[in-house]
Every structure is written in structure tokens, then in C-alpha cells.
Specification:
This is Zf-HC2 domain-containing protein. This protein is mainly α. It contains four helices and no strands.
């Protein structure tokens, strides 16, 4: 099983949610998320965002919504 850092989890979240990680990486992702409150919260927030936005293409989102999402992602990457 691959051991994940917080940064690796952030970089792999879309692959995880798309079920594109191999089994050892998926297990490592889930193990890290299970024991890291910040990452567990991040995965939850990502899922909530996906549900809220749905499959809308970015150009269909309001400029304010796109700006808020990009700001949130940038802040997370910097922390």
C-alpha cells in the first residue's frame, strides 16, 4: 500500500473520485483520509462542491462562483 502525504492526497483527489487510482494507491489514499482530519474534510468539501456544481461546464457558472471556487482551491494548495 502506498503511503500518502496531505499534498499527495490533494494532487490525487480527482483520480480517486474518478476511480482511476490503482488498488494500492486507493487504499493509501483512504487510509490517510481516515486518520487525517484536514484531508477528510477536504475530500468531503470536494464532494459537496461537485454535488453543488454538478456537471456544468465552467463557462455556465457565474463569474462570482468561478472566482470563489478558484480562490478556495488556491488557498488550499498554499496551506
Amino acid at each position: 500500500m502506498k503511503r500518502f502525504t496531505c499534498g499527495e492526497l490533494v494532487e490525487s483527489i480527482t483520480a480517486y473520485l474518478d476511480d482511476a487510482l490503482d488498488p494500492p494507491a486507493r487504499a493509501g489514499f483512504e487510509t490517510h483520509a481516515a486518520c487525517c482530519d484536514d484531508c477528510r474534510r477536504y475530500v468531503h468539501q470536494f464532494r459537496v462542491t461537485i454535488r453543488a456544481v454538478g456537471d456544468q461546464p465552467p463557462e455556465k457558472l457565474s463569474a462570482r462562483t468561478r472566482e470563489r471556487l478558484m480562490s478556495a482551491f488556491k488557498q488550499r494548495r498554499q496551506s
